[in-house]
Design brief:
About 10% of the residues lie in helices and about 35% in strands. It is mostly beta strands. The chain folds into 3 domains: about 100 residues, Nucleic acid-binding proteins (OB fold (Dihydrolipoamide Acetyltransferase, E2P), Beta Barrel); about 70 residues, Nucleic acid-binding proteins (OB fold (Dihydrolipoamide Acetyltransferase, E2P), Beta Barrel); about 70 residues, Beta Barrel (OB fold (Dihydrolipoamide Acetyltransferase, E2P)).
Length: about 300
């Protein structure tokens, strides 16, 4: 397979370098000879065989069930892993082209994923900053595509410093992300983290001034107070107020900032309906230039409590 960048699925669709190969059979033949990774949407899944059909423009593409996904242990892909690709982008290489004016073209997604893992994912080290796309959300975290449909878990505690009750409070399906490699488990599965890219306590608190009123989101209502998220990596504590519930948007008055204890004291001025979309993420790492970090210290140097990640 020709050496190239292994991107999350969906990043090639609409790009000229991808679409040119769907302009003629000759271009598909070239893609097959050179092992070019292509992308298109899976249109349907056959009832009996679970083969996927892909529209290649000048030909009909077929991804046989056994070629629809790669499993590290060599087992065939689960039915649900095949069926749920319908309507979504799939990465593949061309493996065979039939005869005729409108031939059937056989494709393999499994080969692409295997190459992606062996040539890219398995060579990553903790602290590497990579591209990812959110594929689905569960209460315990988000699964993200780190390349050609190869997935990794972004656990809920690694999404942000400010706690959320469900990943949907921070992320949405299909969202493009930058994440850092956390570790591999004993089975070679990759885990990633996001919170280290969203800024330190000092960086997030820099624009907040005592006496100002700022926007926030209620993340937790406790007996002793209400935790209000000011940014994904920064929260403050407000006194209890009747009628306030988790998920509410709110305006809060900043009463005090105690840097050596990482505390921000707030007073809720008003609340509003919960926002329909997650708060946009702001990266405090220049991900266009920096591709690796060795460590991340969230807590200020003046704070006795050290919150730090060593990759």
């Amino acid at each position: 397979m020709k050496e190239q960048c292994f991107l999350p699925e969906g990043r090639l669709i609409g790009k000229a370098q991808n679409e040119q190969y769907f302009s003629s059979i000759k271009m598909l033949e070239r893609a097959m000879r050179e092992g070019i990774i292509l992308e298109a949407a899976a249109l349907s899944c056959a009832k009996d065989t679970l083969d996927l059909t892909v529209d290649l423009g000048v030909a009909r593409g077929i991804i046989p069930r056994g070629e629809a996904a790669w499993e590290p242990d060599g087992s065939p892909p689960r039915d649900i892993a095949v069926i749920t690709r319908v309507g979504r982008p799939v990465s593949f290489i061309v493996t065979d082209i039939g005869d005729g004016e409108y031939p059937t073209v056989r494709l393999s997604r499994r080969a692409v994923q295997k190459a992606c893992f062996e040539e890219y994912v398995s060579r990553l080290v903790p602290g590497d900053i990579i591209d990812a796309s959110v594929t689905h959300l569960d209460p315990f975290g988000a699964f993200v595509d780190v390349g050609c449909g190869v997935t990794s878990l972004l656990s809920i505690d690694c999404i942000s410093v400010s706690r959320i009750s469900h990943p949907s409070g921070r992320l949405k399906k299909g969202q493009a992300l930058k994440v850092a490699v956390k570790n591999f488990d004993e089975n070679g599965r990759l885990y990633v983290t996001l919170r280290e890219l969203l800024g330190t306590w000092e960086e997030n608190a820099a624009g907040i001034v005592v006496g100002s009123t700022v926007a926030g989101i209620v993340r937790s209502v406790e007996d002793y107070g209400i935790f209000v998220e000011l940014t994904p990596n920064l929260a403050g504590l407000a006194e209890r107020r009747a009628g306030v519930k988790e998920g509410d948007a709110c305006a809060v008055f900043v009463k005090n900032i105690i840097r050596d204890r990482m505390k921000i004291k707030l007073s809720i001025i008003d609340t509003y309906p919960a926002p329909s979309e997650p708060t946009p993420l702001k990266y405090f790492v220049d991900t266009s230039r920096i591709r690796h970090i060795d460590s991340f210290r969230y807590s200020p140097l003046v704070c006795p409590k050290v919150i730090e990640t060593i990759f």
